[in-house]
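Example record

One chain of 581 residues, shown exactly as stored in the release files.
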Amino acid sequence: MNVLGLYPMGPNTASCLLEDGEITAFAEEERFTRIKLATNTIPVRSSAFCLDQGGLTLKEIDAIAVGWGNNKYPDFMRKFYSERMSHPEKDEFSDIYEQISLMEKIPAYFEKKLEVAYRKTGYRGPFPKIHFHHHHLSHAYSVYYPSPFDESIIIVVDGSGEEMASSVWLGRGDEITFQKSINLPHSLGYFYAALTEFLGFSVFTGEGKVMGLAACGAEDKALMTKLDNAMWPDGDEYRVNPEFIYFAPRTYSFRFTDKLTELLGIPPRLAEEPLTEAHNNLAWAVQNKLERIMAHLVLGAIKKHSIRNICLAGGVAMNCKMNGYISGLEDVEQCFVFPASTDSGCALGGAFIQARHCSDIRDKARRFSSYCGPVYSDQEIEDDLKDSKITSYHRMKDSDLLPFVARRLREGAIVGWHQGRMEVGARALGNRSILADPSITDMKDKINREVKHREEFRPFAPAILEEFAEDFIPTVPNLGYGPEYAWMLKAVRVNETIKRKIPAVVHVDGTIRPQVVSKSTNELFHGLLSAFYDLSGLPVLLNTSFNTRGEPIVCTPKDAIRCFYSTGLDICVLGNYVIEK
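Predicted structure tokens for this chain:
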């Protein structure tokens, strides 16, 4: 059974291909369009890659699985909006937005939109049947199926999926069952997004900036009291006051109302304005509030179901500070987060639902590798170098490449590293990475300023050899340093000795967001870390995504070349080809 999984609406559009339940390919559309998030873009380019990877055409696809419950829109969602989302102070924009959403997501309309998009690529054959799957259920499958658990609580938290803002599910064996949902307008994701925009950052890309900025702030008790009026625990659930993000006049933003500005007592920050102590403290308060509400939700589910394994999915689960906090709760035994927890993961989750009756589907899902994007041959790299009119490059032998790069890293060079199959998800994990020596004190500021062109408070992550992981981070019961720490999805606190050893990758709050690298998951990157360790005695490299501010992670060699020459990178390594400035 060949299933093409799609997430074709909103931000983080993506495609994946399952062949008899086996993941053949999985990639975000933005990597191909070069437009960050590729919002509302039918993912024809990523699906073309997936089909090519499987040696298939659309004619050979048995089903298209979409990770959104479009079937709810003709009747259920229309009634939901009219009954649950009505309010005397609701502005005209909200009503118009809801009407457009209802129309665009009606199955007949959306099916035609998909078909036309693929026809424009030149496809003339029969179109596979489209199956729509509920958004939160797709998220639940995307995280539970690849997890190591045979039994788990699954918590999905995002802006919304159809009517749901948060939901709780149980995974047992191959089955996932619904337990409860917290519906709109009570959305943690939309509340965090509202405060993201209030702080002057862009929604869908700036939430990570708020999380990073929070470490620069401190507790302001008066501010925390104000936020208690905006979001609070309710039984084993929570509530969000919709008057601050939905039901009141909006003159500053479509994301929050004027009542939020009145509540906080400060004007919304413009993007070009400097950050102040008040902004830092607001970021701290919002982050703290999120962590406490999520802990309340998790602990309530554990108490009710007597299960201590937790799977987290949805866009909110990309908050690594929150994930670290949840993992540290005494009642949580293990916490698993999927690397594509944004809506891109619903391309895979929807495909898993469609293929759930394939034999050994869980075993196949557990073989998931984050390296499931495109790979480029030596000939393709040479062609891109020639097309770019680059003549000053050299091709190194396998035996010489890693020692050379390790030596240049130790000398302080900043290296663009483009190898093997591209990663899926928001983190670069050693195949589309910018690398540097983490022991150089000012390296973080240098990369932020000269390469990434981004805010100075933004932290970087350490990639750590698995053999030395216990020297830097605590182990996870029964998991060691497997998927728990393989994907840079959890922040953990380190001691003063570690801070002195690797200052460029320790955030101002004393935490790191580690990637533990094993030989079995990425042999080449493990080899580079080992070569660097042999030179420096340090089994760690600074690892950040190979891109600059506002751009997707590089995909092709040509993308990498463009990024190399437009930033302060010193070396670009494309397979065995090396370019130096």
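Notes: The first strand starts at residue 2 and ends at 7.
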